[in-house]
Design a protein that fits this description.
By secondary structure, this protein is an alpha/beta fold. It has helices spanning about 15-25, 35-45, 55-70, 85-95, 115-125, 140-150, 200-210, 220-230, 255-285, 310-325, 340-345, 355-360, 375-385, and strands at about 50-55, 80, 100-105, 130, 155-160, 165, 170, 180, 195-200, 290, 300, 305-310, 360-365.
Length: about 375
């Protein structure tokens, strides 16, 4: 029986009671004013001009890639993608006909290795770089932005599993031209399922709003909506149902947005608890294992604590001990995505020293706000005894 889960639901009994009370008022449940309110509150919290709520973090990544593609701003379709992340950090690039080039992982944060990234940018001259803020440990953003400014690429920032983390006082997800977030169960906050894209670019915002909802303009500001009507000489009777782009239906609902607003109210506390837990693990295990490390003045908000065993045999011993003691664990994210069939079947198996080490030796330990110091001590000691 599992005693310590990797993830616990951040939607608690108070959230459920609040939701029931709201439902009894017979509100609109599909996307409406509450979704708009959630988007505005999220933009204020993250520190960005615009946000677009959607049905998952994976959809948020899909929307980012597609909005960039439709913007007409790309000089080519080459994109640098991470070896360590999640399949839907890369899948939209394949689906939309981009030319993805995979980058090695950084030995500190496990994000993009910036030396390798610069060499790839020099060689391939991509229009776009997709980075992941891996597991809520902020990447080296000063150096990343220097490369962006030097080479002029668009930066897509996948912060799906990094909500609440910050780099030198600025929240993760406020650095890229667009940034994605996930509100899936077990992440820093949850709306059951849900995602968000945030940006400071009005062109991207309008494209995101349209392609999220079929390609129509009904969600745009009135001035932008009217501008499209006039530009395309649309008859008044047709205006609500004209499709300007070949879009999707990736909308979330007001029900999910209502939950999200409640989650935002306690997100700072939940982030603080994850930071405390992460710091405890670092004190107990950080000098013994290879673990993610970020620059000073950064705030970590990890959804799990990741560590690298010495080798595969040691990982097996640690995993066996964790399972025996009711502690849930798993591989580190998806390991090296360059070893997965979706990539290898198209571009060949792609190996890197650091990404392969994460793939072969990485594992997760639980980190969620429900854990207390006694629980963290038991988990840490279980790992150490396995050595």
């Amino acid at each position: 029986m599992i005693k310590f889960h990797l993830a616990e639901d951040t939607i608690d009994t108070e959230d459920i009671a609040r939701l029931i009370q709201w439902l009894q008022t017979n509100p609109r449940l599909t996307k409406g004013k509450v979704t708009v309110d959630f988007q505005d509150k999220w933009s204020q919290w993250i520190g960005r001009s615009y946000s677009v709520n959607c049905n998952s973090g994976s959809s948020a990544n899909l929307l980012m890639y597609y909005a960039l593609l439709l913007s007409g701003k790309l000089k080519n379709k080459k994109v640098i993608v991470p070896s360590v992340g999640w399949v839907t950090s890369i899948a939209p690039a394949i689906q939309f006909g981009f030319e993805p080039v995979m980058c090695e992982a950084d030995s500190d944060t496990f994000g993009l290795d910036l030396d390798h990234l610069e060499s790839l940018v020099k060689e391939h001259k991509p229009s776009t770089v997709l980075m992941v803020q891996v597991l809520g440990v902020p990447h080296k953003m000063d150096a990343m932005l220097e490369l962006k400014n030097k080479y002029g690429f668009f930066l897509l920032e996948d912060a799906c599993a990094a909500i609440g983390a910050s780099y030198k006082g600025k929240k993760v997800g406020s650095f890229g031209d667009m940034a994605s977030f996930s509100f899936y169960f077990g992440h820093q906050m949850s709306t059951i399922e849900g995602g968000m894209v945030s940006t400071d670019d009005a062109t991207f915002k309008n494209l995101l709003l349209m392609i999220r909802s079929h390609g129509w303009s009904k969600d745009l500001d009135e001035r932008d909506h009217q501008s499209l009507i006039e530009q395309h000489h649309i008859d008044d009777f047709h205006t609500p149902f004209v499709f300007y782009e070949p879009g999707f239906n990736l909308r979330s609902t007001d029900l999910n947005a209502f939950i999200g607003i409640g989650q935002l109210e306690k997100l700072d506390w939940m982030t603080f608890r994850r930071q405390e837990n992460h710091s405890y693990y670092m004190q107990q295990l950080g000098d013994i294992f290879s673990v993610q490390r970020c620059e000073s003045e950064c705030q970590v908000a990890s959804i799990s604590f990741g560590l690298l065993a010495e080798d595969e045999a040691q990982r097996k011993r640690i995993v066996a001990a964790l399972v025996q003691n009711g502690i849930e664990t798993r591989i580190f994210s998806a390991g090296n995505l360059g070893l997965h069939p979706f990539w290898a079947n198209r571009y060949g198996t792609t190996r890197f020293p650091m990404a392969d080490r994460i793939h072969q030796c990485g594992l997760f330990l639980p980190n969620n706000p429900s854990l207390n110091e006694d629980s963290l001590a038991f988990i840490s000691q279980t790992v150490l005894k396995a050595l």
